[in-house]
Queue: 2 jobs
Job 1
Amino acid sequence: MTKWHRSYIQNAYRELERGITRKQLDTLGINATGKRVLDVGCGPGNLLVALSVDTPKFLVGVDVDAIFLSFGRSQVEKLVERPLATPVLLRAALPTLPFADASFDLVTCFLVMPHVPDDYVALTELTRVLKPGGTLAISGHGFGFPLRYLKRFRLKPLQMYLASLIYRCTGKKLIRNTLQNDRKMCDILSNIGVIPEVQHYNKKLLGCVATYWIKAIKSEVSPKAMQ
Ligand SMILES: C[S@@+](CC[C@H](N)C(=O)[O-])C[C@H]1O[C@@H](n2cnc3c(N)ncnc32)[C@H](O)[C@@H]1O
């Protein structure tokens, strides 16, 4: 486990203990009760633990990182008590999820958009596995986010801005960890038939959003049929 994994896990579980993770779900009006739920990019399982409290029908987490998955599996075993169903953690990565179309009622994907190879393709895949009328909740970082690192790590903000610029100009995430314009994300979602319903930001730094959350509902009618 790297230093980065350790510090991410520490911070994520601190937020879980303090109720910050639950508050994020509540702010978006997300309740997983009785639902088939998928958390994409589940990391060390923090969101899965928060969602399990709602007693979903079943709960699956996927991530590309074997270290997070292994830690996440041990945490959900320890923290999710019977009669709640223990979440299942699998290794898989956007843009290819190993699930049939319309398998889930709720799909969450928090802080993963900065790392996916292509925003449009990733959102389309998240939508594919969601049933019509189902809920997609995503979050990511806006252009204000790197400013918080300015004092401590000067290269990190530079890297994030550069990654975003390269993606904007070439359509390629040659360096991962891009920043998103949340309005553009809403436009993509609307275009693929997932209608944004709730948007939430933490704070703005120098007028720019640091972290955004979007909850959107998959239309019962396919976008092609609407045209
Ligand atoms: C910043 S962490 C977020 C973890 C968790 N969702 C949370 O909110 O705390 C980003 C996670 O996305 C995962 N990830 C990165 N690229 C991915 C991809 N293409 N498909 C699935 N997961 C990915 C990383 O391994 C990492 O666990």
Note: Helices lie at 3-17, 20-28, 46-52, 66-79, 119-128, 155-170, 182-191, 223-226.
Job 2
Amino acid sequence: MFPLTSLLFIAATLLLCAYTLHKVRLIHLMLHDVRDQSHRDNAGLFRQLEALQGLYTDLGLSHSLPDTRGWAASPDFLLELTRHAQAEKPRTIVECSSGTSTLVLARCMQINGSGKVYSLEHDAAYARQTRQQLERHGLSAWAEVLDAPLAPQEFSGAIWPWYATDGLPRELEIDMLVIDGPPQATRSLARYPAGPALFGRLSAGAAVFLDDARRPDEQQILRRWADEHPEIEQRELRCEKGAAVLRYRPRA
Ligand SMILES: C[S@@+](CC[C@H](N)C(=O)[O-])C[C@H]1O[C@@H](n2cnc3c(N)ncnc32)[C@H](O)[C@@H]1O
């Protein structure tokens, strides 16, 4: 018979081995996750670089674009906007929030030789910055950044902070609408009012681009718009932050 101390020693060794094996297994699983995540990150980064290069090629820019990270629209979304604007040559584009997207769209209008971008911007300093960028690129004639402070307005029976839209020409028909504002922090479903405020001004066949469509708020907004506007088709775009394109197809 083994003495008790030997039995205790064997039991402790077995426990230690089991614990070590458990830890090794966890590290093994974690390494797989890290490897998969790193593949996804690299693929995502490469996709943005390809889109950025595509943008510079399609737009033939002689000056660099501002940042396309963080708050700005991502290169893949900007490339979707560019392809649409160059293929369909919209006469009038309205944007909710200004920035790199304003430059990109203004350059499309310049290349097309017609069209105008109206960009609603709630932040006066940011509006000034976008105007400076337009000037730097020689694009001021193709886009107007409108000072449009957010003010409480009623839509669908509730109050929302929404852009002052009185700077938009009264008879304006919108061929392309780009919704990348207001920022999420301003209210839940912050971009919902774009529907009740602007969809009534869409021309037949107009396209609406919504950025950040992967966020739960934007998903809910899309569902509300689908309920309220069955005549507007929705399609998902495969973009970094999620995006959707809506098409206004009124029945004859
Ligand atoms: C999602 S951003 C708009 C991005 C714009 N469409 C673009 O492509 O650059 C929405 C709003 O955030 C504000 N904003 C943009 N960049 C910002 C920054 N770096 N810090 C704080 N606010 C910012 C601006 O007022 C802008 O209208």
Note: The longest helix spans residues 4-59.
